[in-house]
Every structure is written in C-alpha cells, then in structure tokens.
Amino acid sequence: MDKQTLSRITSRAPTDALQELAEAVSRGRRAELVKGPEKTLVLLTVREPVRNSRFYLGEALASHCVAELDGARGAAVTLGDDLDRAGAAALLDAAHTGGFPEFFAVERRIIELGESLRRGDEENAALIRSTQVSFHALEDREV
Predict the structure, then answer these.
(1) Domain count, the chain
(2) DSSP-H helix ranges across the chain
(3) Is residue 80 part of a domain?
(4) In the β-sheet with 31-48, what is the strand arrangement from edge to edge?
(5) What is the pTM assigned to this prediction?
(6) Each residue's pLDDT tens digit, 92-127
C-alpha cells in the first residue's frame, strides 16, 4: 500500500475503526504525539478548466497531527474537527513509514475499510443518479 492510498482511506474511515487499528500497530512500541492533534484551516484552491488557472475557493476546517512510533514519523490531515481520527491516522502513517510488521498485519483491514468507503460512494452516486432529470428540447414540427 502506498502513502496516497493510506491517506485517502484514513482521511474518511470511521474513527473507532482507525483507533482500533492504531492501537494494534502501536502495541508494545513507544508511541508519541509530536504535534497535535490540532484544528487548523486549510486553503482550498481549484483549477479553472477554461484558462487552466488556479483560484482561491475558500477555507476548510481540518485536523492535523504528527506522531512518532519507535522513531518513525507519520503525519495526517483530515477534513473536519475529528482530532481522534487525525491522531490514529498519524500513528498508522508512522507504522507504514517504519515498515513495522504490525502495519502489514492490519493492512488487509485498512484495504477492506477502503473498499467499504468505495461501495458507499457508489451507492450514494447511484442514489443521486436516480434523481437526475433529463430534459429534451422539443423539436419544431408542423402541425
């Protein structure tokens, strides 16, 4: 599992599941929160497709944390004010960075969390698609 996949899953996974996994990877190791978890604001920028220029959309509330697990550092930033999720995600990132065997033991469960999130997204998208209204232009016809 690469860092981007891990971050994508941990930023949206249920907090209780992440805390359980973080406890599993940190059991028997020296875990320390280096910074946070704290609330912060992040700038949201988007790329305008016509001119391909970036513009400032606004700010969003986020939580961030930096953790250390037996000397290996990990960090996490999640949207919202869930400090527990950010802390657990940072510990999982530290375990991934350190290449600890405990991380590889829970990696399958992290992938399953990601699949569950993906299925939920697909169900939500299907629900939204089912409410889409299609308008067709009336053709000019002679009566």
Answers:
(1) 1
(2) 3-10, 15-26, 83-98, 101-130
(3) yes
(4) 31-48, 53-69, 72-79
(5) 0.82
(6) 999 999 999 999 999 999 999 999 999 999 999 999
Q: Report how far residue 34's alpha carbon sits from residue 12's, in angstroms, rounded to the nearest whole number.
A: 22
Q: How many residues does the chain have?
A: 143
Q: What is the mean pLDDT of residues 26-48?
A: 93
Residue 41 lies in a domain: yes
Report the distance separating Cα 5 and Cα 24, nearest Å.
20
CB 31 within 8 A of CB 69: yes
Please state, in angstroms and rounded to a whole number, the distance separating the CA atoms of residues 56 and 62.
Answer: 17
Paired tokens of 98? 């350190």
Phi, psi of 36 (to 5 degrees): 85, -160
- The residue range of the domain holding 119 is 3-125
